[in-house]
Design a protein that fits this description.
17% strand, binds magnesium ion, alpha/beta, two-stranded parallel ribbon, binds adenosine-5'-triphosphate
Length: 465
Amino acid sequence: MSSSEIREAFLAFFESKGHQRVDSSSLVPANDPTLLFTNAGMVQFKDCFLGTEKRNYTRATSSQRCVRAGGKHNDLENVGYTARHHTFFEMLGNFSFGDYFKKEAIQFAWEFLTEVLKLPKEKLWVTVHDDDKESEAIWFNEIKIDQTRFSRLGDKDNFWAMGDTGPCGPCSEIFYDHGEEVAGGPPGSPEEDGDRYIEIWNLVFMQFNRSKDGSMAPLPRPSVDTGMGLERIAAVMQHVHNNYQIDLFDNLIRYIADIIEVKSLTNQSLRVIADHIRSCSFLILDGVMPGNEGRAYVLRRIIRRAIRHGNKLGVQGSFFHRLVEGLVQQMGDAYPELRQKQSIISETLLREEEQFARTLEQGMKILEQDIAHLEGSEIQGETLFKLYDTYGFPIDLTADIAREKGLTVDLAGFDVCMEEQKRRGREENQFITDYNESLNLNEQTEFLGYQQIEGQAVVQQLIVE
Ligand code: ATP
Ligand code: MG
Ligand code: MG
Ligand code: MG
């Protein structure tokens, strides 16, 4: 089954169970300052769970575009290292707003996996929250799950929350066993971190609303929120053990490999770039522009990371913006907006590439020299700060390079340099204010001194602050 066929089969299945098909919402959550990006299908329904918004349906299904590159759910560091994480992915979901609860949610999921997708039951592994005896009883008595493929886990694994505040509750998850040839152990075991047992579907039983002070109030009516990663279930259905080998990624990676002239299709940097072109294009599509703060800075960081991986593969000149075309070929049918905004997206990426190209090479040289003379295995705060301040290397980019070389970074030392920079900035601003006042300049006069220093991201950031 192709990714598109799986998406359609899922939505059609839940429609047949009385769910309203709802379009994906934007990656920028509407009116929700608590959240950086839409990180799950439930985000657009948050107020339905809280009971403050009523819709004319109580069951919904969607395929939601998600980004997990900051905030509570951040997978940026996982990309390139696991078979299952992306910064951008699609989450298939079914939702009940005070309609059905645990029993139906579990039955629907099991029916879809074993009867529609026809997955063998012995390949599936189930987890529940260790306090949730109700779900456990449903799995044993209704579904008749094999007890040897079942784990009870604590809050860390089986309590889901959208963010630090908002709807949350215990969950039950379904894993797929990719087989002995893949390293890794079952959920809850010490070897769990491998890629053998892949979590495919999370069924969240929404029962609470967490407030800022950490207290949890019961929701007006218990609800259901589920999420299944399209790319993960596609890997299962297409008999590949890595998300980056599914149809959509395979085609995209071939397109990219062709442009940047890389032979090995399993190259790690190639996968990172394929991941990043998706998140960057969709973020721009949803109105985020690269910049120095908040969402804009997350986007800039992802773009720069992609460019650095291109540089690592020996790319000369700008390339990242050219990949948008390859993405449109893969995803333009599912997301026609992508095709409409293709030129804005690639122009935005090109501008960023040109800006970063000026400092990337130099910064890399400095870093390589530093690493060559390193005593110990930690890159010092001063180096991190210099790269950040003068060469526009976001801290996570340098950390990414360090990790590839088996090194760590001195984040505390970086923070000290940052504080020192801010203090100097404040003093200087004070001096300028005093100076302007002494000259009796009128208030409209704008100080442009910092902006005239070339290519320094942090300088602009100081101005913003
Ligand atoms: P993992 O433990 O593998 O990081 P998760 O527990 O963080 O996943 P959930 O928050 O439960 O994931 O999200 C629901 C589903 O969304 C997951 O079961 C998975 O199928 C999918 N998913 C989550 N994160 C990613 C990601 N970064 N890339 C692709 N799919 C993802
Ligand atoms: Mg995760
Ligand atoms: Mg998990
Ligand atoms: Mg999960």
